[in-house]
């Protein structure tokens, strides 16, 4: 067998990543050797592979769904926005350029060639490759030179499923409009639809499904019900617009309140997922000083634009509030870019070009940005527990006297800083850290002794596989993967040029 499928979406955050993961888990449970693929990803959530390549975090999660080790070929092109106009281009796991939208067009042919070669390599190695599109295939202003959606589908002959989020409203218009805006040769590869995040009566939905098929000549392969916690390892901060997860019943007497500063260029906010899995930990994303007031722990997460986001902290008054809290002994944790902001000084001629900038001065650290990016999978020990993590940064931190070591970073009083992402996914360390935070904050909170973040993630991936198996027409999906898009699919008016 040598099959493939492209999962496209009506919008960002429609459910492409989740459906791709669910398809991978369903297939691997059928004994199929399957791999995920995303030709081009724009995301500030990334991960480091075992051989030191940086790829989108969602593709690493999808590889876990497929029960394989992630590689750079699963996400050959990664764009990491540093501002509204410029992005770092990561090619096969290594940064190669910083470009604006116009400069990026000059790289398109090279990137297309690399993406197609990576797909070819994966198809040689696996029975099936489940490809994920980017944004929407109907972004007609970007169709010329597209390498992630219909450009990829046309070049590789991939059948396409379009997934729409019914919870947003307007799903039928979005599905129909997506196909109608495509040129006829692109439409010929769109085999049908999947509706995501449905909560309601199927009897009321089914007439719309029939009308959609009559209008487009394409079936709906199934309707996925709403599933709490399905959005794992999200690609962008759109997912942060959803309500925070229920903290659940605390294991101790009180809830531990965690405020995560929602920076404009927040990155690797998946670090917080492991905190959210703990019963009795309530997560809030904060953009004002007042939202930090009653927090037991404030987290400054990673950032793709440390100096710019630090200026935002100051302009919003959040920086002053964090400093006041730290001086009162209230717990603060900085991770990667957030750690850099806690330093005494930052010297950046690389990312922002700002030169020397004062940090918040809460840790005796000097940060200097280097042209080369540090990518690694470090291991260590903290609170007597083993810790494995990953690191992705240009800033190099030098710790001066007066601080205690902490996960390749440091600690002073109730302020912790580390360059390591993913450390909180280590269960023993996370519980020990939260116990100390609770003690410092004066909270009667005890972490649950039996919560395994790895087991919870596996359970979520299994739940996604169950959704596919129970709610999609898997026999039709098999035919689509094996044979490609059906011949003779009608053109949906108005069509493209």
TrEMBL record:
One of its GO terms (biological process) is cobalamin biosynthetic process. It comes from the Bacteria. Residues 6-229 form the CobQ/CobB/MinD/ParA nucleotide binding domain. The keyword Glycosyltransferase does not apply. Residues 257-428 form the CobB/CobQ-like glutamine amidotransferase domain. PROSITE patterns: GATASE_COBBQ, GATASE_TYPE_1. Belongs to the CobB/CobQ family. CobQ subfamily. HAMAP family: CobQ (MF_00028). This is Cobyric acid synthase.
């Amino acid at each position: 067998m040598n099959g493939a499928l492209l999962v496209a979406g009506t919008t960002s955050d429609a459910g492409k990543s989740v459906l791709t993961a669910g398809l991978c888990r369903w297939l691997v449970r059928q004994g199929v050797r399957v791999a995920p693929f995303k030709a081009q990803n724009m995301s500030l959530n990334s991960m480091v592979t075992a051989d030191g390549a940086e790829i989108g975090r969602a593709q690493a999660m999808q590889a876990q769904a497929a029960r394989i080790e992630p590689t750079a070929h699963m996400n050959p092109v990664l764009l990491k926005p540093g501002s509204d106009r410029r992005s770092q281009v990561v090619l096969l796991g290594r940064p190669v350029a910083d470009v604006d939208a116009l400069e990026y067009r000059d790289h398109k042919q090279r990137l297309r060639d690399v993406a197609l070669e990576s797909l070819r390599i994966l198809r040689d190695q696996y029975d099936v490759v489940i490809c994920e599109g980017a944004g929407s295939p109907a972004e007609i202003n970007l169709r010329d030179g597209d390498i992630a959606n219909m450009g990829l589908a046309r070049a590789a002959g991939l059948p396409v499923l379009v997934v729409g989020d019914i919870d947003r409203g307007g799903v039928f218009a979005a599905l129909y409009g997506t196909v109608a805006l495509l040129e006829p040769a692109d439409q010929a590869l769109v085999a049908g639809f999947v509706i995501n995040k449905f909560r309601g009566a199927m009897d009321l939905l089914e007439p719309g499904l029939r009308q959609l098929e009559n209008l487009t000549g394409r079936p709906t392969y199934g309707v996925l019900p709403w599933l709490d916690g399905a959005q794992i390892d999200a690609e962008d901060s759109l997912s942060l617009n959803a309500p925070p997860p229920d903290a659940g019943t605390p294991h101790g007497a009180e809830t531990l309140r965690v405020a995560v500063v929602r920076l404009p260029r927040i990155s690797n906010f998946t670090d917080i997922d492991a905190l959210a899995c703990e019963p009795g930990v309530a997560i809030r994303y904060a953009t004002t000083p007042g939202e930090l007031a009653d927090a037991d722990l404030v987290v400054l997460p990673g950032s793709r634009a440390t100096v710019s986001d630090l200026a935002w902290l100051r302009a919003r008054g959040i920086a002053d509030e964090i400093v006041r809290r730290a001086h009162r002994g209230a717990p603060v944790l900085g991770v990667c870019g957030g750690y850099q902001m806690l330093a005494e000084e930052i010297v950046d001629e690389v990312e922002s070009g700002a030169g020397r900038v004062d940090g918040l001065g809460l840790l005796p650290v000097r940060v200097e940005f280097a042209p080369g990016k540090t990518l690694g999978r470090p291991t260590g020990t903290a609170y007597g527990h083993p810790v494995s993590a990953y690191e992705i940064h240009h800033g190099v931190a030098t710790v001066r006297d007066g601080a205690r070591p902490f996960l390749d970073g440091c600690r002073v009083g109730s302020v912790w800083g580390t360059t390591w992402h993913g450390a909180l996914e280590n269960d023993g360390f996370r519980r020990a850290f939260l116990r100390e935070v609770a003690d410092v904050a004066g909270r009667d909170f005890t972490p649950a002794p039996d919560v395994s973040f790895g087991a919870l993630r596996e359970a979520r991936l299994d739940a996604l596989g169950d959704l596919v198996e129970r709610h999609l027409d898997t026999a039709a999906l098999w035919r689509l993967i094996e044979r490609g898009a059906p011949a003779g699919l009608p053109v949906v008016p108005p069509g493209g040029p």
